[in-house]
Specification:
The chain has 383 residues and is an all-alpha fold. It has a single domain, classed as Growth Hormone, Chain: A. Helix 9 packs parallel to helix 13 and helix 12 runs antiparallel to helix 13. The two termini are 36 Å apart.
Length: 383
């Protein structure tokens, strides 16, 4: 019965729009680093160019969140899909460094618009009693794209070429735009959504969830940027299988565990997820075969499957009625983590090697675990 309350026509339109855009984004996850390496870019340059998308959206996410108090989510989703379409097509003619860098920055604008608005819309239209379950189902759109698109992207560049890949991404962005335009026009939150006197684009109440999002996305940003190159250097023909295995784990875990997440405290869900992140990064440091990479994908996928829906709802619940600014702050922290993960680990990789880089990522996850444990103890003490 809960599923019927969640799967409304409005939810379906947001879901399909997210699915198409996420498919376009996921096609580029393993292929863009390979594309840049083929053009002669070094590790630190690849890190900067891949991370530019996330870093640029950092500065817009809080502003978008603030604007969503008054501006309907549909408008930002439409604008984001259009920007993604234009920038995906621009990859065909953009060369490293500055033209490509500019395209990545602009695509970050599209990400800030689309993803901040889409997740907030799902939260807004979801029944209160099934909010985590709704977000969990919504994220399966990205997870399904993540399961299929990276492997498909590798096949496209192997059997055809990179321009064809970028054209496919553009077409998918237009599909996303089609479904975004089908969303009903509705008035947005009333002024009570933003606390009186609140002038800041940032929401301090989401600080702790934002820090957790930063650290988890730091890991993801580095893995997405450099795992494809690492796998190819170890003789793995298609790095996309790792991303596919990770996404399939996400889908199965979230479909089976969506209702469970609403029954357990947020703390009890988040802590084991952080342990899974640590274990997967350590395993990366000495793994060199496809079978080991698949095992790591399962461990990492399990942690990711339950961590992100829980931490999103955690942030929203702490924000109270100010959901727009809260999501802007929260998603900006995630983008900053993903961008800096690629940039900083690119520099580390230039100075060291892949095993050291993955051990550094394990240390980041361990620090995050310690931070969250300390936060829980402080909260219990204060209450």
């Amino acid at each position: 019965m809960a599923l019927r309350k969640i799967l409304t026509p409005e939810f379906a339109s947001v879901f399909l729009s997210q699915l198409a855009l996420s498919f376009a984004v996921s096609l580029l996850i393993p292929t863009l680093p390979i594309y840049l390496a083929g053009l002669g870019s070094r590790e630190e340059t690849i890190g900067v160019l891949i991370g530019a998308l996330s870093v640029s959206s950092v500065f817009l996410r809080p502003a978008v969140g603030k604007a969503l108090v008054k501006v309907p989510e549909r408008k930002f989703m439409v604008a984001g899909a259009v920007i993604f379409a234009v920038t995906s097509l621009s990859y065909i003619v953009a060369s490293p460094f500055w033209p490509f860098f500019l395209v990545r920055l602009l695509q970050g604008v599209g990400a800030a618009f689309f993803y901040t608005a889409s997740v907030l819309m799902v939260i807004s239209i979801s029944p209160d009693a099934h909010r985590v379950e709704s977000v969990t189902y919504f994220y399966t759109a990205y997870n399904f794209a993540f399961a299929v698109a990276p492997t498909l992207g590798m096949y496209v560049i192997t059997l055809v070429d990179f321009p064809s890949l970028f054209l496919l991404c553009t077409a998918l962005c237009l599909v996303s735009l089609f479904f975004a335009l089908r969303l009903p026009k509705r008035s947005n939150q009333t002024p009570e959504s933003a606390p009186a006197g609140s002038k800041s684009f940032l929401d301090a109440r989401t600080l702790h969830p934002a820090v957790m999002s930063f650290s988890a996305n730091f890991l993801w940003g580095a893995v997405a940027a450099f795992f494809p190159l690492y796998a190819l250097s170890r003789g793995v023909a298609n790095p996309g299988y790792f991303f596919g295995a990770c996404a399939l784990t996400l889908i199965v875990s979230r479909m089976l565990g969506g209702r469970i997440l609403d029954r357990y405290s947020r703390d009890r869900v988040i802590l084991p997820c952080l342990v899974a992140f640590i274990v997967s990064m350590i395993l990366f440091s000495f793994s060199e075969t496809q079978s080991m990479f698949i095992l790591i994908a399962v461990v990492f996928g399990l942690g990711t499957a339950f961590f992100f829906p829980t931490i999103v709802v955690y942030a929203v619940e702490r924000a109270g009625s100010a959901r727009g600014p809260a999501m802007g702050t929260f998603t900006a922290a995630g983008d900053l983590g993903a961008g800096l993960g690629a940039v900083i680990m690119g520099a580390v990789l230039r100075l060291t090697n892949y095993p050291v880089m993955f051990l550094c990522l394990a240390l980041v996850a361990a620090v995050s675990l310690g931070y969250f444990h300390h936060f829980i103890k402080q909260r219990i003490k204060n209450h």
